[in-house]
From TrEMBL:
Entry GO terms, CC: membrane
Location(s), subcellular: Membrane
Pfam families, A to Z: p450
The keyword Flavoprotein appears for this protein: no
Protein name: Cytochrome P450
Lineage per the UniProt record: Eukaryota, Fungi, Dikarya, Basidiomycota, Agaricomycotina
InterPro entries named in the record: Cyt_P450 (IPR001128), Cyt_P450_CS (IPR017972), Cyt_P450_E_grp-I (IPR002401), Cyt_P450_sf (IPR036396), Cytochrome_P450_monoxygenase (IPR050121)
C-alpha cells in the first residue's frame, strides 16, 4: 500500500496536471493490459510455432513469399494435401514438437495442429461438445451419410440419438447375430471360389476393396436392417457398390484441394449446386432409391420387438427424415471403413508372406470354430494384425473440429514458443479450427520403431510407454475416443476378425507388385500408382488353398 502511494506520488511529480484518481486508473489499466498481454503471449495460438522451412518439397514460386514455408494463397494447406496423408504433419512434428499452428488457405484463421496426448484427451473425452465438426466437415457428413448420429451436434441431441441406436450394437446383440454374419460372409467367399474355379489359371487378380466391400455391406445390412443383399449381388447392393466411384475424387488432386479450401473459407458454398459436392451424395442417393424403399416397405409388416437397429429406430419417436438419415448413416459408415481396413490388411499380408503364414497357423491351430468371445481374446496374432492395420491405415486419418467456447487446452509436452516462452497449455477462442492428425500420430518416429513398416509383432512385444500413446481403443485413435467414439466399434472388430479369418483359411494372397499411394476423400483411399484410372483399388493375386 505504502509502495503504491509512493509510486503515485512519483507519477504525480511527472504529471503535475493529472489528478491522483486518474493516475491510479491509468496505472490499473496499464497493469491489466500488461498482464493480459503476458497471458496471451504465453498461451494463445498466435504464440505457437509455425513451420518455416520445406525446402525439400515446396518449390520456390512467386506465391511463396508471405511467410517462409507458407504460400501466399494456400498457406501451408496445399503442402499438406499434395502429399500422402500425414507426411507433412510428421515432418513438422519433428521440427516443432507435438503442438503447432499452420497458415490456412485464403487468409483464413491459422489452424491449430494438435498431436499432444493430454490435449487430445481433453478435447475428445472431456469437452467434445464444445468442439463440433468444422464447417467443412459437418456439411460433408450431411452429404455423404445424411443428418444422422455422425452429423448431430450438441450434448442433448447427440445423447438422445445415441440412446436410440446404442443398444442394437452391444456385444450381446452381435453375439446373437454372429451366425447371420457368417452366413452373409460365406456367400461372398463362395463367389470368389467360383471365380477361381472358372478361371484356368492357378490364381486370379482380385480387387480386394471390391470383395471386402461386398462382405461388409452384406454384414451391416443383415445385422442392422435384416436385409438379404445376396452376397452383394442384389440390385440394391449393386447400386450402392457402383455409386462409390464418383465420390472418391481425392483432395490430393488440385480440383479436390481447391474445393476443400474454398469451402473452408466460404462455407456458404456448401449449399451451392456444385457438381463435385452433389457427387458426394451418390451412395446415400443409391440407398434412398434402392434398399431404403425395401426397408420401409418391410417395416410396415414386421413386428418391432427385435433387438436389431431397425426395430429400435421404428420404435423410437423420430421423424421419417431422421429414420432415413440414420439408415443411410449406418449402411455407409458401417461398411466402407471396415472394408478399407480389411483390404489394407490383405494388401499388407500379400506383401508379408511370413505374417500371412503366422496368421493362418494361429487360426488352423485353434481348436473348433472361434466364438465371438474367442475372437476378442484368444487369437493374439489376429488381434495384432488388426491393430497394426488400424495404426498404419486409420480409415479416417484426420479429425477437424472447431471451438465454440473459450477454452484452455492442457499439454503434456510443453511447447517452446519462437519468442522463448514455455507453453504448458493453449488458449483457444470460438471459431478456432483444430486438426488432430491421427495418421501422423500413429506413425510418429519418436514413438514407434520403423513406423511405416507393417509389423504386427510389435503389438505382442513391449509397447512404447503409455504416456506416449493416445488413450483411445488399444492406444490408437482409429476409432476416436470419448463420448463420440465410433459406435460401431464392436461390430467392426467382429466383422473384420470373422472375415479375415475366413479369407486367410480359404485363400492365399500374393503380391502383384502394385504400389499403393494413399489419398484422402471421405476416408483414406488406396490408389494404384500408374493406374489411377481404376480409382480406389487394391489388387492382389488370389490362390485357392486345399
Ligand atoms: C474399422 C472400421 C471403423 C473405423 C476405423 C471407424 C472409425 C470411426 C471414427 C474415427 C469415428 C469418429 C468420427 C468423428 O468424430 O469425426 C467414427 C464414428 C462413427 N462410426 Fe465408425 N468406424 C468403423 C466402423 C463402423 C461401423 C461398423 C459402424 C456401424 C455399424 C460405424 C458407425 C459409426 C457412427 C454412426 C459414428 C458416429 C458416432 C457419433 O458421432 O456418436 N463405424 N467411426
Amino acid at each position: 500500500m505504502v509502495q503504491a502511494q509512493g509510486l503515485l506520488a512519483s507519477l504525480g511529480c511527472l504529471f503535475p496536471q493529472t489528478s491522483p484518481t486518474t493516475l491510479a486508473l491509468l496505472l490499473l489499466g496499464g497493469f491489466i493490459w500488461i498482464f493480459r498481454r503476458a497471458q496471451k503471449r504465453g498461451s494463445g495460438i498466435g504464440e505457437l510455432p509455425l513451420p518455416v522451412s520445406h525446402s525439400t518439397y515446396i518449390q520456390c514460386n512467386i506465391l511463396t513469399f508471405a511467410k517462409p514455408g507458407a504460400e501466399f494463397l494456400w498457406g501451408h494447406e496445399r503442402v499438406v494435401y499434395s502429399h500422402e496423408p500425414g507426411v507433412s504433419y510428421r515432418r513438422w512434428i519433428r521440427q516443432l514438437g507435438l503442438t503447432f499452428r499452420i497458415k490456412a488457405a485464403f487468409g483464413a484463421r491459422d489452424v491449430l495442429v494438435l498431436s499432444d496426448r493430454d490435449g487430445i484427451h481433453h478435447i475428445l473425452s472431456k469437452r467434445i461438445y464444445d468442439y463440433p465438426h468444422s464447417n467443412v466437415v459437418r456439411p460433408r457428413i450431411a452429404r455423404f451419410l445424411g443428418k444422422g448420429l455422425g452429423w448431430v451436434e450438441g450434448a442433448s441431441e447427440h445423447r438422445r440419438m445415441k440412446r436410440i441406436v446404442a443398444p442394437s450394437l452391444t456385444a450381446e446383440n452381435i453375439r446373437d447375430m454372429s451366425s447371420d454374419i457368417k452366413d452373409t460372409l460365406f456367400k461372398v467367399i463362395h463367389d470368389l471360389e467360383s471365380e477361381l474355379k472358372n478361371s484356368n489359371e492357378p490364381h486370379i487378380t482380385a480387387n480386394m476393396l471390391e470383395w471386402a466391400g461386398k462382405m461388409t455391406l452384406n454384414a451391416v445390412g443383415r445385422v442392422a436392417f435384416l436385409l438379404d443383399l445376396e452376397g452383394g449381388k442384389s440390385e440394391g447392393a449393386t447400386k450402392i457398390l457402383a455409386a462409390k466411384a464418383p465420390h472418391s475424387r481425392p483432395a490430393t488432386t488440385f480440383g479436390g484441394f481447391l474445393t476443400l479450401m474454398l469451402l473452408r473459407r466460404f462455407s456458404f458454398m456448401n449449399y451451392l449446386p456444385i457438381p463435385a459436392l452433389k457427387a458426394q451424395a451418390s451412395v446415400r442417393e443409391a440407398i434412398n432409391n434402392g434398399v431404403m424403399k425395401e426397408i420401409v416397405r418391410r417395416s410396415h409388416a414386421m413386428p418391432i420387438d427385435g433387438k436389431d437397429l431397425l426395430s429400435r429406430l421404428l420404435k423410437a419417436d423420430i421423424t421419417p427424415d431422421e429414420l432415413y438419415a440414420q439408415i443411410s448413416t449406418f449402411i455407409i459408415s458401417g461398411h466402407e471403413t471396415t472394408a478399407l481396413t480389411l483390404a489394407y490388411s490383405i494388401y499388407e499380408l500379400s506383401r508379408h508372406q511370413d505374417c500371412q503364414d503366422k496368421l493362418r497357423s494361429e487360426l488352423r491351430d485353434f481348436y473348433g470354430e472361434p466364438t465371438y468371445d474367442d475372437l476378442q481374446t484368444r487369437l493374439p496374432y489376429l488381434d495384432a494384425v488388426l491393430k497394426e492395420t488400424l495404426r498404419l491405415y486409420p480409415a479416417l486419418p484426420y479429425m477437424e473440429r472447431t471451438v465454440v467456447e473459450n477454452d484452455v487446452i492442457p499439454l503434456r509436452q510443453p511447447v517452446n514458443s519462437p519468442e522463448g516462452h514455455i507453453m504448458n497449455s493453449v488458449h483457444v477462442k470460438p471459431g478456432q479450427t483444430v486438426i488432430i492428425p491421427i495418421i501422423a500420430i500413429q506413425r510418429l518416429d519418436s514413438v514407434w520403431k520403423d513406423p511405416d513398416t507393417f509389423r504386427p509383432e510389435r503389438w505382442l512385444e513391449q509397447l512404447p510407454p503409455s504416456d506416449d500413446l493416445p488413450s483411445g481403443w488399444s492406444n490408437l485413435l482409429a476409432f476416436s475416443d470419448g463420448p463420440r467414439t465410433c459406435i460401431g466399434i464392436r461390430l467392426a472388430i467382429y466383422n473384420y476378425k470373422t472375415m479375415i479369418s475366413a479369407m486367410i483359411q480359404h485363400f492365399r494372397f500374393l503380391d502383384t507388385g502394385a504400389q499403393i499411394s494413399l489419398k484422402i476423400s471421405s476416408a483414406i483411399q488406396p490408389w494404384v500408382i500408374g493406374k489411377e484410372d481404376l480409382g480406389p483399388h487394391v489388387p492382389v493375386y488370389v490362390e485357392a488353398l486345399e
